[in-house]
Amino acid sequence: MRQLLFPVAALFLSACTTTPVPPVDPQQAWVDFTTPTPGSKLVMAQRLDGQNLNDGRFFQFPPGHHELMVRFDFEVPAGGGLGGLSQMMYRTCFMTLEYDHFQAGQRYVLEGRSLAFTPNIRLYDSARQLLAEERSVNCI
Description:
The protein is mainly β. The protein contains one helix and ten strands. It has a five-stranded mixed sheet with strand order 4-1-7-8-9, with no helix packed on it.
């Protein structure tokens, strides 16, 4: 399964890199993604206000209240077997976050982190002040 995941992920990521990210619109709020956790492989936009997105590399939207759903893939110990805890597998989680005060022209950072099997996301402003955390997590 893991051997199949890498070619599929590479194909997906190569398709993403061929389409340029649109320019930042100063009338919109913009959210970038980051993940400082080792073994975290992917944080991407999934839905904005309940609507699926075509491009998961960013969120750009009008100011005000919004609900963001992100996909977060990260490694966890597979456990058991002959390899013990040295074997790793990916866990995929869909996490939802709400924030009422997105502002036009502002850039935000949505940070995905994981501690063992427990993921979380946090929204920061450009001054690195914590604005919101996930309100729901669904992992598969």
